[in-house]
Specification:
Elements (H helix, E strand, L loop, with lengths): L1 H18 L14 H8 L8 H19 L5 H19 L4 H25 L7 H27 L9
Length: 164
């Protein structure tokens, strides 16, 4: 079930990026990062085998790099760091619908800040604080909604496959 959620999210990122403009200062409030959001949602399925989760997240990050960016291993490493953050927060918090919103917001903000930092360090793209703020605020809306939909879908599954 977890594999299907993340793979569907990976393809939804590509499909929606064709229809939603992703230019800076565009009028879109919808910048999809469904793959990253779904990685946070499916962690409870892997709670008893975290090594398998980290390998899975690294592979998904590599596929994300392969399909959507030209920066090989950048997103794979950032997704892996995000997976470590998710695992840490899941051990410290009891994830419910509201804490899930906060977890998604923290995960996306941390990812965007690390990604912007890497772009700044390696001087790939000129980046400003306004651009970072724009991307973070425009990423949160659709991804929090998507994360909550996934959370409730996984929560109402039969007990054998359910979260928590």
């Amino acid at each position: 079930m977890a594999y299907a959620i993340v793979i569907i999210s990976l393809f939804l990122d590509g499909i929606l990026s064709n229809f939603i403009p992703y230019m800076l200062n565009d009028s879109s409030w919808l910048i999809p990062m469904f793959t990253l959001t779904s990685i946070g949602i499916v962690y409870p399925f892997f709670q008893k085998e975290p090594r398998k989760y980290y390998v899975f997240v690294f592979i998904i990050g590599f596929l994300y790099d392969l399909f959507y960016t030209n920066l090989l291993f950048t997103n794979a490493i950032l997704f892996l760091l995000s997976a470590f953050l998710i695992a840490f927060l899941h051990r410290k918090l009891r994830v419910q619908w509201f804490s899930n919103i906060l977890l998604i917001m923290l995960q996306l903000t941390t990812y965007q800040l690390l990604y912007a930092f890497l772009l700044f360090i390696f001087n790939v793209v000129p980046i400003t604080w306004e651009a970072i703020g724009y991307i973070i605020t425009h990423t949160l809306l659709i991804n929090v909604i998507y994360g909550e939909i996934l959370y409730f879908l996984c929560y109402f599954l039969p007990k054998k496959r359910r979260l928590n």
